[in-house]
Write a structure and sequence with these properties.
Number of domains: 1
Number of strands: 9
Distance between the termini: 54 Å
Keywords: Membrane, Transmembrane, Transmembrane helix
Shape: globular
Oligomer: single chain
Pfam family, one: NERD
Protein name: Nuclease-related domain protein
Number of helices: 6
Radius of gyration: 19 Å
Organism: candidate division TA06 bacterium ADurb.Bin131
Strand content: 25-35%
InterPro entries: NERD
Amino acid sequence: MTGQLIWIFGILIILVFILKYLGSSSFKGKSGEAIVKFWVKKFLDPNKYRIISDVIFKSGDGTTQIDHIVVSEYGIFVIETKNMKGWIFGSKDSEMWTQKIYNYSKKFQNPLRQNYKHVMTMRELLGVNKNYIHSIVLFVGDSTFKTEMPENVFSNISSCARYITSKTEKVFDEKQINQVIEKIEKSRLEPSLEVRKQHIRTVKKIKNNR
């Protein structure tokens, strides 16, 4: 009987940890990124649009992580994903946005500002015309915008894909596209546990300095 109780107790502890992880921001972020990666490949022609996901670069005294980079002859699209549900309130210039689920409200950093750093990192790395790099914020999950959003903020992947394909002026040739991808791949940090820990420390430092 004692052995059975220990076994049951052990299973319960494991379940608690699993449930805690499933509810964590880390899991939500990773699952959101996986959803976007899958559907972007479905909506965009892989012969014209190449997607690079979960890219971590050195940035200043820390790191910066970009969810998705879409490279094409029509430009480079830097996508920040937010796996959130409920009502979303925000504007282009506000420092913080709000998520509201019934009586629960949560403030979070304006994702456009967050993605601005990512775009600047890409500009510095690639040395291309600033007009060739486009910032996109994409919300996945059951969320609804309750304020008017800028044209580059989306609540569904199909609208995001339409925005990307609306850019029809060719700015890169095949050789330049390959050079861009090569620079990204050579500059990104290897996805190791230590790199992840370093990035988490960077994120915490930024939050504490606000």
